[in-house]
Amino acid sequence: MTPRIRLIAGFFTVGAWTLLSRILGFLREVLIAGFLGAGPVVDAFIQAFSLPNMFRRFFAEGAFNMAFVPIFSKKLEARDNPEGFANDAFTGLATILIVLTLVAQIAMPALIIAIAAGFRGDERFDLAVFYGRICFPYILFISLAALLSGVLNATGRFAAAAAAPVILNIILIGALTLAWWQTGDFGLWLSQGVVAAGVAQLTLVWFAAARAGFPLRFKRPQLTPDLKNLAVIALPAALAGGVMQVNLIVGRQVASPTEGAVAWLYYADRIYQLPLGVVGIAIGVVLLPDLSRRLQAGDITGSRAAFNRSIEFALALTLPATAGFVVMPTAVVSVLFERGAFTAEDSAATGLALAIYALGLPFFVLQKVLQPLFFARQDTKSPFCYALVSMGVNAGLAIGLASAIGYLAAALGTIVSAAVMVVLLWCGSRNMGKTVQTDDRLRRVVPRLVVASLFMAGAVWGLGQLLSDALMAEGSRYLALAGVIAGGLGTYCVAAFALGGLSVADLCAAVRR
Q1: Which residues touch 328 (CB under 8 Å, ≥6 apart)?
Q2: Cα–Cα distance, 369 to 290 (Å, whole number)
Q3: What is the pTM of this model?
């Protein structure tokens, strides 16, 4: 198997598991929307669950793993005691997270105010504090699972780490079902399910890492020279992760005074995260260790090919998603969520946010391609500086436009700041030599993918008009939406293959693998 096909095969492995996770996540959100709508309980749970997720991105998937994976990959390539380094990192991260979890239990009211000051004075505040204290230990389990996933990904074993998020959705769906069956507190059941899922995810990847030759265990913490080096590299990445989380907090603060707005943004986020998760996570997981190994081996040609194919793969899947979501966002939201407590007004408000988020999809996923260029070189300072600029843009737009367009200012600030981040990352990578040079194939393919996506947008719009009545009817809207999606994707594939934007040979080889 050629390196190009191996890289694409890795994308498909991670992407397939992520797609399954996102589909189950959709089912989870459909159940939450049906049972709870956009009311105070769901607002409180969303904010409570967001706390460990924000810190997880700050410590594990963001700062720690972006610094850990390149160092571990190079030690693995050089056979320089990678297991000892991974075990020290595992222990150090666990120690920090245990302390953080204990502090958060005490400081939970202040944390909720920090992310949702608009909750103060109504029932959402007490609920969010209660659910937050239950949910927060999730950060310990999921962050350690993220580190173990980094170990697996660096060794080329993607399946177990990619499958772990599926467990979260299965357990939360089970929690919702039990809460409905026992007429219990949905928020409480969901919060307890979050912690149970964290334990299950950590268990899965721990056994997978042990089978791969890395049975990591907690031991007495010690600050080794390698950990000092890791801390020096991770600190700017941690600050950069903190900046990105400030963007999220600003958006939630803008939305929190309006009851239901936090939920509208959340549901829109869950929909556009489907393609972003499948593509962006696949690229981030596969590309970083691949680039790190190639740079360690001095393989500049292979690094350049990996970079170009990652951009190609990213745009091939996100451009059509952008086209579809922008053309008919409200119909998608209505079919997926409008039932039970989720009303037509909720669908309209969520659809507006989805249309705005969709415009940022290419920028969100290109960040996943460009950031590994820096992290693979252990340069975490540059992304931090760029993130600071991005944060300023996001805060200025979200706060400045809140009085004019309300909660939509948060979505608009998010996509514009993402675009600014991509421009800064691209400009900052210009001094990296041939690794980041675009090749003839990429320059030829991208315009063809854009044209194919425009054809798809036209097809989706036409089918949406033709099936408008069926999309609104309770008995036929699911089949009608499936028909619109199938027609749009069919149009895109035919156009992309005919124009030369997609390669049948590469696709078939990767799928076979």
Answers
A1: 460, 461, 464, 484
A2: 12
A3: 0.69
